[in-house]
Write a structure and sequence with these properties.
This protein has about 240 residues and is an alpha/beta fold. It contains six helices and eleven strands. Helix 2 runs parallel beside helix 3 and helix 2 runs parallel beside helix 6.
């Protein structure tokens, strides 16, 4: 019997794998799996594997990988969400969970002129992402990083992607909409609660970012991020 529960291991290339302490505790202590039980693994890179437990140690569960398959659950349209973390960290953690559930490709947390949170715990964000990955039984884990706004623009300057910047400008009427996309890769910038500074807006314009609206209401930062995720998820269903 194969239990219908994914466990995360970042490398499925070997015949034997040892789960992390957290995954081992979940597998052997919380779910009480024993030697001989069959389990499902995912590497967060599009692959899933069936495996058999060899050692049911709740601190170092060892499994033998039997079969690895590439899963066809990646969106055709790849959203790179670049978003300033909110002062209330619970909101951005919630957004990370939803991004994983909807299959978002990358999340970059950007530090902006008006940011109220100067740093972020990426280890915790990755744990939240892994938990969501297992819960919704998908095989894609978004890459995450934290960089200054200007550095992000420089790093992505040569990418072949559609570029959008959502900010609160009453003169802006262009919608972030399905029919707008020309490339499979899409970058969406979302600023902090105090929005992007005029200097940041100008820098983004110089890098070819189109200014867009996310609906007809002023949204919280995490709600704006969710709007972008839903737009891409909807596009991928076409």
């Amino acid at each position: 019997m194969i239990f219908n529960q994914y466990f995360y291991h970042p490398d499925l290339s070997s015949s034997v794998a040892t789960l992390s302490t957290e995954e081992s505790e979940h597998c052997c202590r919380a779910l009480r799996h024993k030697v001989g039980d069959q389990v499902l693994l995912t590497d967060g890179k599009g692959c899933a594997a069936t495996a058999v437990i060899m050692v049911d140690n709740p601190k170092a569960c060892m499994v033998e990988i039997q079969e690895v398959q590439e899963k066809n659950d990646r969106h055709k349209w790849h959203l790179h969400l670049a978003i300033a973390p909110t002062k209330n960290i619970d909101r951005i953690e919630w957004l990370v969970e939803k991004c994983v559930e909807m299959g978002i490709e990358r999340i970059t947390f950007i530090h902006c002129d008006n940011s109220e949170r100067p740093r972020i715990n990426l280890d915790r964000m990755n744990r939240i992402a892994v938990s969501a990955l297992k819960q919704c039984q998908t095989t894609w884990l978004p890459a995450m990083e934290f960089v200054p706004f200007k550095e992000f623009l420089e790093k992505t300057a040569t990418w072949n992607a559609d570029r959008y910047m959502a900010w609160c400008d009453d003169q802006n009427t262009r919608q972030f909409a399905l029919e707008s996309f020309q490339h499979e890769d899409i970058i969406l910038l979302i600023g902090p609660e105090g929005d992007f500074s005029p200097a940041e807006v100008q820098l983004a314009r110089e890098q070819g970012y189109a200014e867009v609206k996310l609906g007809n209401r002023r949204l919280r930062t995490e709600t704006a991020g969710l709007y972008g995720c839903l737009t891409i998820a909807t596009k991928s269903l076409e």
